[in-house]
Design brief:
heterodimer, A: alpha/beta, 31% helix, disordered C terminus, B: alpha+beta, Cytochrome-c3 Hydrogenase, chain B, three-stranded antiparallel β-sheet
Chain lengths: 189, 359
């Protein structure tokens, strides 16, 4: 009974800074401040991924921290939800063309909520965490949870009927496999 | 006979907001050696700056670091202006100073909050963040964004601060300084804080000079080195003198920042009082040519950009040397001999910004 309310009413979050410029990280800290007060949703910020339900990731993935991010993700107990905070975590953002940046965190872990912004505003981060908590609850009940997909914006507004409805990252299955950027993300300028 | 243990400290650690790994070699509880392992936040920004247009680079370079973003853009713009031979209007210089000092204030308040967090004083952490929101409000009112202001452009600034907003800055600073007065008393006089900070992580004046410490770390050891004395912005007109402490321990480093907060507020007030009425920016044509080393006093110390341009719209080389990089050597000198429990406090006391360092 307690567990039933625990996930939805009090999700514990862990923050991992992947490759961020600190902008989103300090906005996450601002969420904890008395002005925004994330704890009114029962959210507790913990340092240990083994205690956490929601993983907040800021910044893109690079060659060095992809393994670390995967480790942190694997250490979290099920059910769990991942929030990509800011455009860098979502797609790579302004750093997408950098030689050491693989792209958004979706290359390594499956993402449940994308929070936009450079940096993401505290209100947006809080909204992202609350939505992640809803998905956690669905997962606890064993119900299907849809994953959002980031379709790259094209300049031609012609609809493509052959586009796949939803993509599930394939990189999850094999931790040892090299992380490759999906073709449609990497090719778009 | 004591046994040596190696403890990996980071990259995912509750104290660090950023990933850096310190391999601590311990003898019982005492640190014998600390070896840093970096590269977790390396993006390759310097290479990307060469691929983008030199005007687009302002936005890119602002994102070297989210905490002191405005000062990165300001330094880059000053470097390019030097190459182009542009004379920036006086009002733009004063507005840049105001935004730069607001950034310094929010950065120092963040440092104080993280320091309180590093020795587990959660109440003080929360109260300091509450005070920091006053400063962030001022930035949002004047520039439209809380962190990334993007108001600096080559040749001046792209946004004016209206008289109403200037008045609002005054009242906002009053409120921030009032709560800072209470917080400052707690930071400076609290028994627990003194026990945790005094005599911890001592860096002598000679060692600070020898190892090339910059910013508040150098100032806490008694070296009055501050690039604001060089007069890149109207600091000399406003009567700026660097703040120094003599003890060189974590407490002195905290006190330097605490006193700099009041100093920054006074500088902003003085700048508002003398704000000249000139255009906001000068137009320019053509591309920069030549080499320049632009320097600025960032909230953590000296920030140096080397810019090499060849007359095309892309830079030939861009190089950034950030203050945390300079302060890593003093940090590795401070750590040996301390207790394991003091490591978080010492690391946070240099206010590390790994994202700047690795770019």
């Amino acid at each position: 009974m307690l567990q039933q309310f625990g996930l939805k009413k009090s999700p514990w979050v862990v923050h991992f800074n992947c490759n961020s410029c600190n902008g989103c990280d300090i906005e996450l800290l601002a969420c904890l401040s008395p002005l925004y007060d994330l704890e009114r949703f029962g959210v507790i910020h913990v340092g240990n991924p083994k205690h956490a339900d929601v993983l907040l990731v800021t910044g893109s993935v690079n060659h060095r921290n992809a393994r670390v991010l995967k480790n942190v993700y694997d250490q979290m107990p099920e059910p769990k939800a991942i929030v990509a905070v800011g455009v860098c975590a979502s797609t790579g953002g302004i750093f997408r063309d950098c030689y050491n940046v693989l792209g958004g965190i979706e290359e390594v872990v499956p993402v449940d909520v994308f929070v936009p912004g450079c940096p993401a505003r505290p209100e947006a981060v809080i909204d992202g965490i609350v939505r992640a908590a809803e998905k956690l609850e669905l997962r606890r009940r064993g119900q299907p949870v849809s994953r959002p997909s980031l379709v790259p914006e094209t300049h031609e507004p012609t609809p493509n009927p052959a586009a796949p409805p939803e993509t599930v990252p394939a990189t999850l299955a094999s931790p040892a496999a090299p992380v490759a950027a999906p073709a449609e993300l990497a090719k778009t300028p | 006979m004591s046994q040596r243990t190696t403890i990996p400290f980071g990259p995912q650690h509750p104290v660090f907001p950023e990933p850096i790994q310190l391999r601590l070699i311990l003898e019982d509880e005492r640190v014998v050696e600390a070896l840093p392992a970096i590269g977790y936040v390396h993006r390759g920004l310097e290479k990307l700056a060469e691929q983008k247009d030199f005007q687009q680079d302002v936005f890119l370079i602002e994102r070297i670091c989210g905490i002191c973003s405005f000062m990165h853009a300001m330094n880059y713009c000053q470097g390019i202006e030097q190459l182009l031979g542009l004379a920036v209007p006086e009002r733009a210089k004063y507005l840049r100073l105001i935004w730069a000092e607001l950034h310094r204030m929010h950065s120092h308040l963040l440092f104080l909050a993280l320091l309180a967090d590093s020795f587990g004083f959660e109440n003080l952490f929360m109260q300091t963040l509450r005070c920091r929101e006053e400063i962030l409000d001022l930035m949002e009112i004047t520039a439209g964004n809380r962190i990334m202001l993007t108001t600096c452009c080559i040749g001046g600034v792209r946004k004016d601060i209206t008289p109403d907003q200037l008045k609002r800055i005054g009242t906002g600073l009053d409120r921030a300084q009032a709560s800072l007065g209470e917080l400052g008393g707690a930071f400076a006089k609290d028994y627990t804080i003194q026990r945790r900070l005094k005599g911890i992580g001592v860096l002598t004046r000679e060692k600070a000079h020898e190892l090339g410490a910059v910013g508040p770390v150098a100032k806490a050891s008694g070296l009055a080195m501050d690039l604001r004395q060089t007069g890149y912005a109207p600091y000399p007109e406003l009567g700026f003198t660097p703040i120094t402490e003599t003890n060189g321990d974590a407490y002195a480093r905290m006190m330097v920042r605490l006193r700099e907060l009041d100093q920054s507020a006074e500088l902003i007030r003085a700048a508002i009082g003398r704000l000249p009425d000139t255009p906001l920016s000068v137009p320019f044509k053509g591309n920069p040519t030549g080499e320049v080393a632009a320097r600025i006093e960032q909230s953590r110390g000296e920030l140096l950009f080397f810019i090499k341009a060849n007359g095309s719209k892309n830079l030939e080389r861009f190089r950034a040397r950030t203050p945390t990089f300079a302060n890593l050597a003093p940090l590795l000198h401070m750590l040996p001999g301390c207790e394991l429990a003091d490591v978080p406090v010492i690391v946070v006391s240099i206010d590390p910004c790994i994202s700047c360092t690795e770019r």
